[in-house]
Amino acid sequence: MEERTTLEKSLKPHWVWAIALGSSIGWGAFVQPTNWMADAGPLGVIIGFGIGALLMMLIAVSYGFLIKSFPVSGGEFAYAFISLGRKHAFISGWFLTLGYICIVALNASAFALMLKFVFPAVIEQIPLYQIAGWDVYGMEVIVASAALGIFGYFNIRGTGLSGQMQFVFCTIMIISIVVITFMVGGHPGAGLENVQPYFPKDTTAFAAIISIVAIAPWAFVGFDNVPQAAEEFHFSSKKAFTLIILAISIAAVLYSMMIIATAMTQPWQQTVGEGQVWGTAATIQETIGTIGLVLLVTALTMGVFTGLNGFIISSSRLLFAMSRAKILPEAFSKLHPKYNTPHVGIIFTVVVSMFAPWFGREALLWVVDMSSVGVTIAYFYTCYTAFSLFKIKKGEDFNPSKHVVSPMKKSIAAAGMIASLAFLALLLIPGSPAFLGIQSRIALIAWIGLGVIFYMAKRKEFNKIPKEELNYLILGSKKIIAKNRS
Question: Transmembrane ranges (predicted)?
Fold first, then answer.
């Protein structure tokens, strides 16, 4: 049996917390408040994100248990393997790979979009063409590609460096959001009276709240980056659950603060009705001046940078784990000779993401919407695996090396499975508030088709690997932990 390649343990707890939080708070928190308020009103958005955060915490219980028990790169890929075998491991890994790379690409695109708003004369240079009504400029492509290249380089230089950067970016982002909220709240003419009415007049409070709950997997995606980095923890993996809960809680608070700050500037329905390209920036600048815009741009920049950094880490680790299990080419599990990082996966993620700005923002959003399905499927696999390992009592099939008696946690894992299926239903059932558009559904079908072709091509080779070897390669154990059904 060949020696298993492992990653260096260099991540500190506050860096991992920053990876989870920074990946959860991206461009949406700063660009989307007016769109969200138009659908749900200020209170509807805040309650919706609060409920979404609680549902994510239910799912996080399963993540915390599995990270503690199996601190290996691969996360949901490894968890699906533990409970359902190699075929499901491939399905989980395939969907997650797309989801992570799409989010990397979207963050790079969002950075170019922000600069386009602040410095339109600079970014709107070298006009190329139009896709789905979106004008694509050569300078946009250059800016997005440069951001990707820089963060790819930092990630190759070492996990410690990228972890430190993530914590600094997160700290600056939080400070900026807090200062914006208090400056708006203390400005004459602004205040909580502008937050009323709490819900839109043309919809029920329930429908408004559910429309926001439906996007929770997208809004909070990022806490699931923690298991991808588990192999590199320079601390006990028992702390992972606490770090995830802290990240989700603070993310919900930061989302709510941006909604309140935007709504307090003037009657929120007026802000929504103005139809500005970036309503939050326009109304905050009008209320507290250029300093407000500078703080918002700073917060957005940090949010984009933490998203870029966090998801480059996750996608490269997922590719590394799948390569180590011999599903992907061996190159992805080779480590950099100097920095001991999975550099091929990092370069691959960056290069693939560099294609995205050429297709325009609307086309990219179709793919990102579709990738929400993949992330939700990964949530389900994680909760199912935890559910299968928790036992109500010791029975005939109880194995003390992998099972834990905990009726409460088994119930929470079951609730996480139900929440995951509910999120999936909201994305796939026609008429639901989060139903995928036709373009996203086409992209989803295309990705599934590619996955089927790839799996069929690799199936024989993958299934020939002995059970003991696959357990060792994926989980670092030579014992037969997983069922390994093909």
Answer: 14-31, 43-67, 88-114, 134-154, 166-185, 205-223, 243-268, 288-320, 341-359, 365-390, 411-429, 435-457
Determine how many CB atoms are found less than 10 A away from the CB of residue 407.
11
Question: pTM (2 decimals)?
Answer: 0.89
State which H helix or E strand residue 311 sits in: helix 290-324
At residue 296's C-alpha, the angle toward residues 295 and 301, to 5°, is 100
Residue 335 is classified by DSSP as P
Show the beta-strand stretches assigned E in 370-423.
390-391, 404-405
Structure tokens at 169: 């970016």
φ, ψ of residue 20 to 5 degrees: the values are -65, -50
Q: For residue 173, what are the CA distances in angstroms to 77, 278, 392? A: 31, 19, 43
Per the listing, tokens 């890994």 go with: 93
- Mean pLDDT is lowest, of 62-76, 181-195, 302-316, 425-439, for 425-439
pLDDT exceeds cutoff 80 at 478: no
Give the per-residue pLDDT at 401.
58
Tokens of 458: 């690799």
Compute the C-alpha angle 93/469/346, nearest 5°. Answer: 40
Let me know how many helices (H) and strands (E) the chain has, helices first.
19, 4
Task: Report residue 484's pLDDT band, with 50, 70 and 90 as the boundaries.
Answer: very low
Q: What would the pLDDT profile of 229-247 be if each residue is shown by its tens digit? A: 999 999 999 999 999 999 9
Q: Name the residue among 333, 355, 356 with its Cα closest to residue 345.
A: 333
pLDDT, tens only, 329-382 = 889 999 999 989 999 999 999 998 898 888 877 766 777 777 778 888 999 999
CA gap 34, 255 in Å, rounded = 12
Question: Could you tell me if 330 and 79 are in contact, meaning their C-beta atoms sit under 8 angstroms apart?
Answer: no
Cβ contact 353:309 at 8 Å: no
User: Is the model's pLDDT at 316 over the cut of 50?
Assistant: yes
Cα–Cα distance for residue pair 112/357, rounded to 1 Å: 9
Helix (H) or strand (E) holding 127: strand 127-131
User: What are the CB-based long-range contacts (under 8 Å, 24+) for 163-166?
Assistant: 163/10, 163/11, 163/12, 163/15, 163/16, 163/18, 163/19, 164/15, 165/305, 165/309, 166/15, 166/18, 166/19, 166/22, 166/306, 166/309, 166/310
The dihedral through the CA atoms of 459, 7, 224, 96 has a sign that is: negative
